What does this fold into?
Amino acid sequence: MTSELRKPTRTLIVEDHALNRCLLRDLLEWHGHEVVEAIGGEDAWTALDLEPPDLVLCDIQIPGGGGERLLARIRADARMAEVPVVAVTALSMPTDRTRLLDAGFDAYVAKPFDRRALLEVVDGFVGRR
Ligand SMILES: [Mg+2]
It folds into this structure.
């Protein structure tokens, strides 16, 4: 395991489904990342406002206006305009992917997510920092 060699990333997981949230948290923590959790747009914003994370993994169908509204709010705030936001969603039509990337999400991961694929996306953003 090489996680000791990587810079720990503080990742905000925004996901209203408890099991998915748990799966994401366990996967990231197991790989040495620090995790903050939110259920919807409002508590996500509270966490973001307190301390912008290194990365956001964002479900789209969430309470409080949906993932796209949260993304817009993040992009409009100079403190977190550069924070990568990855859509992690069960909206898996090709048109959904295009729409979300056009909306400004930095990457797109379909649910149910492949653990290795998700980690590759996360590590891709960690490596940029
Ligand atoms: Mg959801």
Remarks:
- The mean pLDDT is 91.
